[in-house]
Amino acid sequence: MANPLFSSTVTDVSLEATLQAEKVSVYYGNNLAVKDVYLDIPKNQVVAFIGPSGCGKSTILRCFNRMNDLIPSARVEGRITFDGEDIHGKKVDPVELRRRVGMVFQKPNPFPKSIYDNIAFGAKINGYQGNMDNLVEKSLRGAALWDEVKDKLKESGLGLSGGQQQRLCIARAIAIEPEVILMDEPCSALDPISTIKVEDLMNELKKQYTIVIVTHNMQQASRVSDRTAFFNAIATEKGGKMGYLVEYDKTENIFGNPKEEYTRDYVSGRFG
Asked: How many CB atoms lie within 10 A of CB 110?
């Protein structure tokens, strides 16, 4: 097996990268949570992060829009670029970065507002000056939700089903016109039918956006992603875990012909 402290296997980096991570490590206090991650996220593709619990998938995902800044003990080392610009540069506004790199969380979290206002709220605070009715409709159509809610836009978003709430959150992210959408286990709280709708939606959204998804569902990763990053973790002397990137490649290679034995064991169900 490959030594987990060596650099991960990465192939086919010729595609135009929207996001790049170079030797990225994340600490929580003095604990090293993820070590030396290198990743190129290609434009208009779906990239899936898979791996066992505690391997750093969500931690790395949150690095891409500096959500880890909101955790007082977190520290990020290495370099992350978005469209070629260092996201930790002095001129970078984290709020603007998070508008351009939106996020959808594991549990649907609509605002306690109407369906309409859920979409309009973010656009308003970001200074949107266009026709709000058109933006709301466009965003809901983009999230494949318009036909289901067009007659109840003034009703609370909290009254929707779990799957509809998650698509409402995706519509809310779309409304502020991001370039990238990060999704942290967006289907883990959904039933199978709602999960299929969100997966179908991802395939449509990648025509306009770059998508990075964290998922524990390997079948989902194989269905929706163009490329897959497999993370693993080793135990530390302090009794915790340190995550690292084992292998990153086209999804068909990760699941059909992985280069690393750790990857082969994981996707075949031998551990995890």
From this structure: 20
Q: Domain limits of the chain?
A: 9-113+180-267
Q: Which two tokens stand for residue 228?
A: 């897959």
Give this prediction's pTM.
0.90
Q: Which of 183, 168, 139 is nearest to 46 (CA)?
A: 183
Q: Work out the percent of the chain whose per-residue pLDDT is above 70.
A: 94
**Element at 133 (helix H, strand E):** helix 132-142
Distance CA 252, CA 37 (A): 21
CA angle 158, 217, 190 (to 5 degrees): 20
Token pair listed for 132: 């709000």
DSSP symbols for 59-112: HHHHHTTTGGGGSTTEEEEEEEEETTEETTSTT--HHHHHHHEEEE-SS----S
Q: Which residues pair with 48 in a beta bridge?
A: 213, 228
Structure confidence at residue 236 as a pLDDT band (50, 70, 90): confident
CA distance 26 to 108: 26
Q: Mean of the pLDDT values across residues 29-33? A: 93
What span, in angstroms and rounded, lies between the C-alpha atoms of 229 and 45?
A: 13
pLDDT digits (tens, 9 = 90+) for 154-193: 999 999 999 999 999 999 999 998 999 999 999 988 889 9
**pLDDT per residue over 116-147, tens digit each?**
999 999 888 888 889 999 999 999 999 999 99
Fold of 9-113+180-267: Rossmann fold (3.40.50)
